[in-house]
Hints:
By secondary structure, this protein is of the alpha+beta class. The chain has helices at 36-45, 47-52, 68-80, 89-92, 96-101, 115-123, 127-143, 145-149, 221-230, 247-256, 268-288, 340-348, 353-364, 374-396, 406-413, 438-447; strands spanning 9-12, 20-23, 29-30, 156-163, 166-167, 176-178, 183-186, 189-193, 202-207, 235-240, 259-264, 292-300, 309-318, 326-327, 330-334, 418-422, 427-430. The chain has a domain at 268-328. The relative contact order is 0.14.
Amino acid sequence: MAEQAVGQTVLFPALFTKPLVATFDTPQQSSDGGAILLKAIDDQLGLTARLAACLPERRQAGKIAHDLPTLLRQRCFALACGYADANDAAALKADPIHKLLVGRDPVAGDALASQPTLSRFENAVGPRDLFWLTHALADGVIAQHPARLGAEPVRRIPLDFDPTDDPTHGQQALAFFTGPYGTYCYLPMVGTLTFNSERTQYLVTAILRPGNAPATLGGLRRLFHKLRAAFPRARLRVRLDGGFASPAVFACLEAEGVEYLVAMASNARLERRIRRLLGKARMRSQATGETAPLFGETRYAAKSWKRKRRVILKAEVVRLGGRDPRDTPRFVVTNLSPSPRRVYALYRERGDVENRRKELHSGLGFDRTSCPAFWANAFRVLLTAAAYVLLQTLRQHRASPVLPQGSTLRERLIKLGTRVSVSARRIVLHLPSAFPWLALWQAVALALGARTG
């Protein structure tokens, strides 16, 4: 085998009855042909256009080969297709589909930006830019829902804000050792929203925070104002985990006039108040041989609180096969009035937000924050969130009863081997006829405005 052909040819001499040669020599092909659907989604939302409008051009005009909207789209679409690293640009710069996604001729168009160019692009973004980018992302998400919901009145919008760990493994700025996670990390905040009784949690914000960030809502107040402007008759309901049970957070939520459910860690006083309820749960569990939850409530104020608040008590004895019974007391602070069992059920509905975090981490490289500069990493987090919004919006176009999520959605609709040809009149994508998800792909394309014929 010739030395220059080693990287382009693979030989299996004894795998079949005849020698098998695999050659990587077909031009104008891509493994991401289905990403055209993401381009259709982005054109409908105007998401990357909103984000690009927040970035001022600071480069010298005579030295610009790739404008800012192109760089942003290149990075965002690559993330959505599963390429989390800027290093992937070396292999993608001549990909005909990725050139098409940013508006270039897939055959004769200039190559896409290289990794050094993308790295300079990420590192040029500062805190003021991130402020406006975060607002633009939220505006783009919120703007799509009035038309989607149509005449359905929006009476309640539950919002879930959840911190997650982003371990660091270098000299990234503002990464600190965080005890609960046992490592040096950032603590990005992910915010999702739901409408009425829908189960889908729509990502609306993702903010990278230092590893020692306090549990505060900060600038998220502005998100409340945006939602009230778009849905003036809707009640906002905020659900938070135990790290947010602080006087500052409660004061913020009450000043904003929103409903809230906030988990709270156990302490000696709360343990005394739940002791009798927990005893009853043990007796019931012993009598039935099954897990036994009981609910109650109390009025409670920590020393740092200015007044008492309603605290829901959940006393549960968990029984699992082959294990000893285990007490699991839980506490939720709320300003809602329904029964304790009902309030706790409302809080548990936030549990699905953990799946959104998993999709961001495992499917999109949400934690690929390897830049030394904090603001460059924050920009990466926001671009990853924008890519997730495109994928999540793609899933909304339900061309079948069940459209897959996360990486499965990408595998079935995006990762599609394609040969691209260009004539004087049109661009043709030659897709495989032996494609298991062909009917689904066509249905989604039609739902996004494509036509047959």
